[in-house]
Amino acid sequence: MRTDKLLKKLIIAVSDDNETAEAKKQKLLFVVISYFAALIGFVIALYLFFSVKNFESGLIVLAYTAVVVINIVLFLLHRDFELHNNFFLVVSLFTPFLVHLFSIYDQNILPIYWGLLVPFSAILIGSRKKALFWTVDYLALILFTSIIDRYFFHSQSIFTVDYNFLSGQFAFIGLIVVSLFV
Questions:
Q1: What are the tens digits of pLDDT across the range 14-36?
Q2: Which of 169, 167, 59, 43 is closest to 103 using CA atoms?
């Protein structure tokens, strides 16, 4: 009962009366996904600060959390869905890779998995064309990060770290591509 009331209030807050049901759903999903991304970012920042003692990466993630929250507030004020959705996707795409590159204490590949939020968000919120665009961007950024990591930081490339990681990445990307055509 309470969840229905909360969803109705949230739909009223994020959309206008003259919009289609699909537009209302997209805006609601955008706000919910952004909110949970900010919440997860905050938890990751706390983990990086207190458990791993990686303050540089923790600050990047904390900045990400603040930017996402500010983006939600600005969206609720201005209601420019395309601008704020694209901004959220760009910030969510680049932040995990920055965390990976600036992770000086451990070359952890888990932030790369965090970047999968972008293709999945694009599938849920946008069209198939946009989701394919963001999936290709994600794959290009993995390749770019691998090159930067290998040649500038003289560490192992993320492609050579673990075969299981690479096969997991392609499994996720395969899932995204399949969901685009279903």
A1: 677 788 888 888 888 888 889 99
A2: 59
| CA angle in degrees (0–180, nearest 5) for 123-126-129 | 80
Return the CA Rg of the chain: 18
Indicate if the alpha-carbon torsion angle 46, 50, 54, 55 is positive or negative.
positive
DSSP per position, 56-110: HHHHHHHHHHHHHHHHHHHHHHH--HHHHHHHHHHHHHHHHHHHHHT--S---SH
95 CB contacts (<8 Å, ≥6 apart)?
A: 41, 60, 61, 64, 114
Task: Name the nearest CA neighbour of 118 among 148, 97, 144, 149.
Answer: 97
Closest to 138 (Cα-Cα) out of 175, 83, 182, 84: 175
CA 164 to chain centre: 22
Q: Is the pTM of this model over 0.85?
A: no
